[in-house]
Amino acid sequence: MKLFLDSTDNTRVLVRLDNKEFVNHVDSPRNQDVFGFLLSCVEIENLKQEDITEVEVNCGPGSFTGTRIGVSIANALGFALGIPINGQKNPVEPIYSSAPSITPSKQTKVSI
């Protein structure tokens, strides 16, 4: 069975198991439980993770966190099950639409 996973939109998760498609819309990126939704789709179809023979993941571009999580799940499944991801045995890398906006920490100077 082929698994397709797309979590690049941080308010939607798309899972396709062969030709059956499942979509989960959430109101906040904090509610985007990609792995939990994937597990529930597999359970609904009475499948086991061992039934997955290949994984295709949307590597982006897309939201930073959603893309990172989807690619991480795909790589973990590929590694654990020994199956290809996007047609290759090596891990795939996310494609971000922009660099992460990480601010440097503000250290407080203490003088004695």
UniProtKB/TrEMBL annotation:
Residues 45-85 form the Gcp-like domain. It comes from Candidatus Collierbacteria bacterium GW2011_GWA2_46_26. The keyword Isomerase does not apply. It comes from the Bacteria. One of its GO terms (biological process) is proteolysis. GO terms for molecular function: peptidase activity. This is Inactive metal-dependent protease-like protein. InterPro entries: ATPase_NBD, Gcp-like_dom. Keywords: Hydrolase, Protease.
